[in-house]
Amino acid sequence: MRTMECPIQGDNDLYGFGIRLGLYVQYISIIITRTKKMRSATSLRNSALVFVLASFSLVVRMFRRGELYAPEVQTMIWLLMPQLSSASPTMARIHPLTNQIWVLVVLTIQIFLVWFWAKGIDYLPKTGCKGDYVFSLAKVSAYHWFGSFPIAAFSATLAQAGFFAYFAFFSQVSIEQKREKQEGSPNYSVMGTLLALWSITTTGTEMTLKWKNISGVYSLRSPGQLVPFFLGVGQLLDTIYRAVLKEGEDEDEDDSGRCLHGVGYKSKDVELANRRSQEGLAPRIPTLRIQGNDMAF
């Protein structure tokens, strides 16, 4: 059980500077893969799901031991929200089992959050600072009237998670329908939503840490912070490289399609006309073979 302290000594292993920066950068990679409908979105989704499971398990264990303050729980909520969205079944190619695991994780977290703001927050120690402030689009106290707002918000998202549960366990969607939705031209309509989520969650995390004067979580000197930071940067560079390659491949396919439409199909039409002329159905159309392509003149 933690005692009252002010300022708060932050937990580098939970939300250190390198961990936060790595997650922020990784989510930019998720936005790119989601918008461009890249195959690497699958691996990013899986890694995000593993991170959410590990982090949530750690938060629950520390909560039971009384080792967290309310602002720290809110900080972890802000960090986990974009990762949960990246694992959504609407964000990438989804295996049915992975989809079901994601739904169960979301339902569990939502139930915990509703219970936490309704009653669980009273079991945590207070910091001893003047006002346990958190960011919720404004500077508000984690206690008193504010608890009713996240209860309503997370109850609404719990209902949405129930819809995803029905989709994952009972809805019958063919593989062809999934491929049609998950493949094709880039979907830029969701980019604004994902960028807005990234901006809000990043601001929420950093402002909560600042308003609570949480110290010791703004350094990249330790290996435990450098590793996740460089992993996030490396993932972003790899994603950008793959996106550029995919753009070039798409342009080549478009050019090839235009070529087939202009030459290949016309060649087939000429062959069909000549075949009919041999059967006495139409006059023969003379052809000229140039480099393997039949052309009419």
Briefly summarize what is shown:
Keywords: Membrane, Transmembrane, Transmembrane helix. This protein is mainly α and 297 residues long.
Mean pLDDT: 74
Largest sheet, spatial ordering of strands: 1-2
Radius of gyration: 27 Å
Tell me the major beta sheet.
2 strands, antiparallel
Strand content: under 5%
- Count the strands? 4
Q: What's the order of the H and E elements?
A: HHHHHEEHHHHEE
**General shape:** globular
List the domain count as a whole number: 2
**Unreliable segments of 5+ consecutive residues:** 173-182, 262-268, 281-285, 287-292
> Total number of helical segments?
9
Share of helix, binned: 55-70%
Transmembrane segments: 14-32, 101-118, 145-169
Keywords: Membrane, Transmembrane, Transmembrane helix
From the structure above, extract its key features.
297 residues; 2 domains; two-stranded antiparallel ribbon; 9 helices; 4 strands; globular
Write a structural description:
Keywords: Membrane, Transmembrane, Transmembrane helix. The chain crosses the membrane at residues 14-32, 101-118, 145-169. It is a single chain. This protein is mostly helical. The protein has helices at residues 12-15, 17-36, 41-64, 70-86, 96-118, 148-169, 175-182, 191-211, 223-278; strands spanning 133-135, 139-141, 287-290, 293-296. It has a two-stranded antiparallel ribbon. Strands 3-4 form a two-stranded antiparallel sheet. A hairpin with a 2-residue loop joins strand 3 and strand 4. Helix 2 runs parallel beside helix 4, helix 3 (41-64) runs antiparallel to helix 4 (70-86) and helix 3 runs parallel beside helix 5. Mean pLDDT is 74; it is low at 173-182, 262-268, 281-285 and 287-292.
